[in-house]
Amino acid sequence: MYNGGGVAILDYDRDGLQDIFFVSSQQACKLYRNKGHWQFEDVTERAGVAAAEGFKTGVTVVDIDADGWPDLYVCRTGLEPTAERDNLLFVNNGDGTFREEARQWGLADRSASNHANFFDYDGDGDLDCYVLNHPVNFAEVNKVTVRQTPTGYERLTQPQTPWDTDRLYRNDGNGTFTDVSRQAGIWNRAWGLSVTVSDFNRDGRPDIFVGNDYIEPDLLYINNGDGTFTNRLDDYFRHTSNHTMGVDIADCNNDGMPDLAALDMIAEDNRRQKLLMTTMLLDRYTSLVKFGYGHQLMRNTLQINTGGLFCETGTLSGISNTDWSWAILFGDYDNDSWKDLYITNGYRRDVTNLDYLNYTVDSLNRTGGLSPRRFRTFDDFLALIPAEAVSNYMFRNRGDLTFENVTQKWGLYRPSWSNGAAWADLDNDGDLDLVVNNIEMEAFLLQNHTAEKLPHHFLQLRLQGAPPNTQAIGAAAALYVGDQMQYQELTPVRGFFSSVQTLLHFGLGQATHVDRLELRWPDGTVEVWSDLPADTLLVLARGDGQPLAADAFMRFRKKRPTPLFRPARPDGLTFTHVENEFEDFDRQRLMTRKESLEGPRLAKADIDGDGLEDLFVGGAAGQPAAIFRQTPAGAFRQTQQPALDNDKVHEDVGAAFFDADGDGDMDLYVVSGGNAFAANSPLYQDRLYLNDGTGRFAKAGNALPRMGSSGSCVVPYDYDGDGDMDLFVGGRVLPGVWPEAPESYVLRNDGGRFALVTAEVAPELHRLGMVTAMAFGDLDGDGTDELVVTGEWMPVHVFRKEGGTWRLATESFGLSQTAGWWNSLALADLDGDGDLDIAAGNLGLNTRYPASRTHPLRLYVRDFDHNGQIDPILVWYLDDAWRPVALRDNLIKQMPAIKKKFPRYAAYAEADMYDLFPEREWQQATLLEAHTFATSVFVNEGGRFRQQPLPAPAQVAPVYDILVDDLNGDGWPDLVTAGNFIGSDVETGPLDASDGLVLLGSKAGFRPLMPDESGLRASMQARDLLWLATP
User: Fold this and answer.
1) N- or C-end of the chain: fewer Cβ atoms within 10 A?
2) 102 and 69: one domain?
3) pLDDT, tens digit, for every residue of 715-724?
4) Within this chain, do residues 222 and 297 fall inside the same structural domain, yes or no?
5) In terms of C-beta density within 10 A (0-12 exposed, 13-18 middle, 19 or more buried), how is residue 353 classed?
């Protein structure tokens, strides 16, 4: 009802000025003629495009009859398949009037339609049509439809009525279209809100992205080139938005590959986050994943194309939370050469207001429901639903994967209920203006003043295609200025229900000319132009440029990279980690992450004395670990290890080979961990396996003391200088009482038996925190190693040896304000100055959690409700106050008394931490803080360390391990990182955007490589990295 209508930009009278068509859902649509100088004339009645009947939705501009005059295709929806639901095609007569001919062309689709997109899917030169339809049984929008199979579940995606499915209409080239949906593979049932076209796999053929509302996943139809499409969403995207609204596709990081932005409906501010309903509920989320609906998150997503696989950076980029959003439009609005983002916002009634849903609706139902006697008009009932206008958003692209919210700075803050939007250069001054369709208020006409206020230049291209594709829809352009390249595809259907100006607009920053322009026409031919002046609108026709070989398109100044790595896939090295099922959040509702997903870990050694490195891979609980012996041919063979098989009940989260008993061969220590077992369970006991010299291992039954902590890591180190290796073991978690600190251990090697000596050797290590990583190295150059320890909610700690005891010296090394959620450590001289620096893998910045030294993320731990169980309450600084992160319902499940204190959601939505409990209660709690989530290097400057966050590609996901080596032989250490984690709380969602990363070191710092440059693709949940030598 309140989805609103679209906007279309077209020069309907071909006078050189762009005109505007507004869709009105329930009244007459409007066509405004641009008279110049920001004056417009309503010409609707004369043009004959009012379309007053039916419920209108989206509008598309197309030259349907290839006469050079733009036509309009208007979609309609409704509950019943009557003539008022037929879509409309207004054909331009060229005299200021239009005639409606949808039925004659075969495009009077009677399904409930939201939008349409015209493009040449079959490469025959004319434009075909995809119509976005939806079912009308809204009682089933969140209904799971699956059938059980021998291997799990299969989603049922077939239409249930003839009107449910989207439709693909083939242009027959004779003035008619034919429905080829089913034979083309377009046969579905979903509540789609946007359909956008781009060449996702760079094969020169247009593919289709459909953004779906409610629980049905989005669709990515890859064009097979034979007239058919295959939905391959899961092959390209790791997770998506949940209620996908508007979508736009453009190259936002200027790497020559189209990226994708999709909108959802979570608010930016604390009050509306807590006042409005969320669908990110644990049971719902896990059920949808189980039944094949994929990982869907209730927030905006920005999908960055890394060459066939997308990594999602919405929270890192700063565009994830913009309330109930509709249209999203990439465009270089300040002409600085980077595409910015405009987002429209608002829903006329807050139908997801939780007080309304839980109390007003309940009260109505208990007292007779809706009736004419109670409500004289439907508007009287609607008045009971809260309403709040919110502002649209403008984000400026900083050029480093992040965006700045410039809504107020650019004068665009104005609360509204906005839906469809389109950009256009309405005054022909070389910048992009905006037109926004609003509900129950005047439309916005936003004049861009970039051309007059900023010293930035532009180049615009209007293409004259060959009939029947007169606008050259589907063309692609690559523009080069200096060492920068920009890429665009000509497709006017963008955002939500709308069509932008059919124009390629390039901002040039301060460049006054373009070095090179390459243009690929829709038929695949490529032409090139050189040394073009800036601040020009070029009208280009095929044949105007110099011919260029098709395979040379976008290869200018771009050599085919020779990757540093190539997939090795050694014979026999096959191991698939099978995680045991356990739901950490059922035990502790307020955890921020699962602690049961820490494996598998690796270790290497020559176990049989043949000079080749062999490999240990740890197993999950219930899965035996494996040891692979390397052959002289570089193949691997799994060895029989009954001792490991017998201990498969343990979860292996850390391991190290070392000579435990002094017999000259490599023994194996395995750390037991996880979170599935009860605290102090014997299944958390670490294990030592002794090597018989041939690579066969037997468990050393009484060699270790009793150890009840769920562990994380082990580092062999001869701390007492007696010639044998002692052990430093990190404790990871205390099951059931997270985040209390578990025990970490120092084990002294007494001839192959190990004694617990933590209290004497490193007493502050005992319950230091939730340790994830340890490393030894001489940080201050005094000839004695320091111990570096870090973990979750911990700084990067340093222990200095004083006599025979290791003492905390974190502050003296300048590291006391470095608390984060650290996962990994590597010590090396990273800047070539002769001392050891620290590389540390953290949570990353692609998360909803903010953390800084001035406003750290805080975790207060106490039994606040005095029921015998600890209550970990997460607090962040938001909207100028310290506020609880947890939603009201989640906090009530942990502490039921909260419901009495906050009987309504509105009160809780306004609350800060001191409204929850008095200050004295917080003061008595244990406080943990996180000051930084950036994966970083810490530069050693004379024994004190300076944090230097790594570039943005290193921040897209948690980093679980880091390797250091000079990969390119330039004398500078390089870094290899890997990670990802899908066990966060459901509101945070999967942190899975990493493909692994190579960062090349130099005097200037570290430069990240794209996957096609590095050859590295580690896109799963990587937990460990090591160098493995093969022949």
Assistant:
1) C
2) yes
3) 999 999 999 9
4) yes
5) buried
